[in-house]
Amino acid sequence: MGYWDLEEGKDCVEKTWITTKLGTALGLVGSAYHIIAFQPDSALQAVQRATTGTVTMASLGAIFGMATCLSAQARDAPDDPLNYFIGGCASGVFLGARSHSAMTGASACLGLGTLAMFTKVGRMEGWKIQSSPPKL
């Protein structure tokens, strides 16, 4: 069962588990590219980089999944795109705390929140990413 198959505002643990797994996978891929692009001096440093990137992305996924689901329950508005903005913003604030930068947190909050909100709006309205040449 996928993320979009579950009802909004219900089964928060399952939704959080799915977003955590997705974040972990993205973190592993991103860490692999980072290690290839910027060669570490030792194997220990490579493991540290991989762990840091993977855990950070897994945490972002978990925070997003839980904040989105809990805000849907607390606000009693399960299909509201604002829930996704709240989840994205919470993830952005975590990035700011992780980097010890309020500016990073504020920017990531707005960026991730807006991206998540538009993802939900697009999903609700049936937006499609252009997969074929445009019709003229």
From TrEMBL:
It is a multi-pass membrane protein. It is found in: Mitochondrion inner membrane. Its main location: mitochondrion. Keywords: Membrane, Mitochondrion, Mitochondrion inner membrane, Transmembrane, Transmembrane helix. The keyword Transmembrane helix applies. GO terms for cellular component: mitochondrial inner membrane; respiratory chain complex I. Belongs to the complex I NDUFA11 subunit family. It comes from the Eukaryota. GO terms for biological process: mitochondrial electron transport, NADH to ubiquinone. This is NADH dehydrogenase [ubiquinone] 1 alpha subcomplex subunit 11. Coiled coil: none annotated.
